[in-house]
Amino acid sequence: MQFTYIQDQQSLVNYCQLVKNADILAVDTEFVRTRTLYPNLGLIQTYDGCNLALIDPVAVDSLEPFWQLLADPSLAKILHSCSEDLEVFLHSGNCKPQNTIDSQIIMSFLGHGLSMGYAAMIKHYLDIDVDKSESRTDWMKRPLSTKQLDYAAADVLYLHQISATIIDQVKDAGWLAATIDASQALIEKKFTAIDGEQLYLDNKQAWKLDACELLRFKHLLNWRYQEAIKRNLPLSFVAKDHTLMVLAQRNPDNVGAMANYSGIDILDVRHKGKAMLNVLIEANKVPPEFYPNVIIRLDAYPSYKQIFKSLKQKVSSIAEEHGLDVQVVAGKKQLNQFLSWYWQINGQEQHTDKVELLNGWRATLFASKLTEFAKQGFE
Question: Domain 298-375 is classified in which CATH homologous superfamily?
Fold first, then answer.
């Protein structure tokens, strides 16, 4: 497989000048993320149809020329399942891609399900079996082997080969604009800063807590997130979810008591017991009028199961009218977002912008119909 392995600054500058006017640039990354919060960038692959390059971020002085390519709105980019690649771009270069489309999203609009893998996509279009044996390799170790480099090159070689075909197909199907919108929505989501103060709202066990317990849990989750950022560690390496839940409920006044609670991870107490105790002490100083509202468990809402089923059927019916697989439109998460918004619970009524069925490409097809359907009592 022919490619240029870029290990010096001038070669990177020259390559980026060479491909900046391409019709479309296929991009992929290889990274390691085993014991860190953020991915460690090991390799960047790009291909414009003529010039395939593997860029070594460990060797070059600065990736700025590549970041400029990514951020150039005049250059179209295509990636496959780019969620984690976006995190690489954010944390390695603070670079927000422009004019970028995700081929996995394209495949979903073409009826191939929500998460079609790269190998399956290439097999479908080119009848080539892509070797994925190096997917778990250590991309930070040098030198990279020939097998690793060939594997990495294949990820953009075949993607570019099918890019025109799949873009034409989704355009002919009438979903190109929706695909672009969905790809951009994914980028916006990844580049929206996480608010540590709001993490408790997304925790699936938070509904079990009263207002006072929820306040402590909120403080503990925020503390853990800030620690993870500071030390670049996975959240669970700082403290486990169930440890924080038990501490929020039991509210110990000394570290020794923590070790005796059922459900506590003893290593969490050993390494972070004092820090967590200090978080609880500060949380307990907060006056009751500043406690968060308790989380209402949506599936405990009156007639939830019946209404959820009715809403799902309505969404499926509208999706079918437009020739769409309902999975592309809405899963349980999106349906629950809509119900929380409509019933005005858990603060969702204040965040219409976070209700996916009421925003972006979905809004045109579903917003007015679903709102009217809800007003009629979900019948």
Answer: HRDC domain (1.10.150.80)
